Give the backbone structure.
Amino acid sequence: MQRQAQKFCALLKSVSCVSLANPGWDSTVSSVFVTWCQTAPSPGPRRVLRRAAEHHYLRVRLELPDGGARPNAAQFKQLVVTALRELHGEVGAALPVDVLTYEEKTLSAILRVISSGLVKLWSALTLLGFYQNRRCAFRVLQTSPFLLALSGNSRELVLD
Amino acid sequence: MLPEVLKSTIADIGEYYLVRNLPVHELVTQEFIDAFVKKGSCYALTYKTKIDQDNTAALLPNGKLILSVDKDTYEELGLQGRPSQYSGKKVMRYIITIDLTDAGFHPESKKYNRVLWALREKKPLEFDFLLAWYNTGAEGSTLMSYFSKNQIQALKPKITFSTLRDLQCPVLKSNDLQGKPEESCSTEELFEWLGAVLNEVSLDNKSSSFLSTYCCPEPNTVVEKAFLCTITGFIIPEKIIQLLEQLCCYFGEPKLAYWLTLTVHGFADSPVSWREVEHGFHKGGENLYNFVIFRNLDYWLQMAVVAHDDCPP
């Protein structure tokens, strides 16, 4: 087993040396997702998905003036739907948006939206100005076609 | 329970250094090249610089120094470079690559003196640098003593452990990337699920739920205990390979787990993503990869990038 593990690791190192031609690379591609599969002893298939992300994810924070009521999760979702309705009408409001996480204390959330609706959601959030007749603003902190990417943000790395 | 050997590998993930206000010309001096670049793998990346607005630099382990600079700096520097491939019609960013290990790059050569003059006198560039050095032999000076005149700080990666209980996990088959209904999940579903777990997203929603309709991909099994370890810092590939080897050895003895994963996030503001492939920020700058290692030591390597990045190798 130990030997097998070593062999495996040797294979692993070789992976990084394999290069493949890039057929017709297009700089407008919004995402690339590559999967290498290694089933010992023969190298397995490689699967490349371009522009195939079904969803986009946004990490957002709601800014509200101090004091006053903070929305709970359901009210937060309602606010997002209201923002969509204000800018894009009933059709916009019907855009499926999921509130994956919401933290009431920091008013931050992770939203999931169909990739084709990203611009609609983003614009609606940006242009929303009021929550219950109080000024408010959405800050889009991070956006990605990969939910995993939102779990680490090197721009937030603080070393002191 | 984690095996002790794995724990010690994690604890020994190595330290890195933060050097404040380090002039870039210090990295191209013969003294530095001989002491570090040629004697091991030397890594450097500018800290708190944004690739889409600031000047950025990185030193790769193959001895190449990459400067990604705006148009004004490029013209002032007067070093040969090429336009960034993501700058569009009006080029506002240039990439300069200097091979420090090139045979023609020595104190007597014109090129060496030109580079040193440009970085020291023509347009002095200064950054906060993250530095790491890996060499197999123990001799020689250390980065800490070499940069003792500068403001240098040794840092340890931040390590957090957590145990997740009663976690819904997708069922995977190593030889089936696309998944089959009722049998196994696809690689994309796994990737999304991993993100959900790391972001603490609830996995059991109903399709009629108002808040969120995300649920764990089908088919899935409930795992009583899952172990999650996060290491944050400037981590070099050699250490990741060590960690990966230890993770493979984890399956050396029969285990209940079917698979395990190792995810590595790249710095969003690094001038390169894979090897010397140019990297840009666009909307998020994410570049990450993930290993899924199965019990029979088959593995998947998933690599993800977004716009302003080339297809990974």
Remarks:
- Helices of chain A lie at 2-15, 73-93, 118-127.
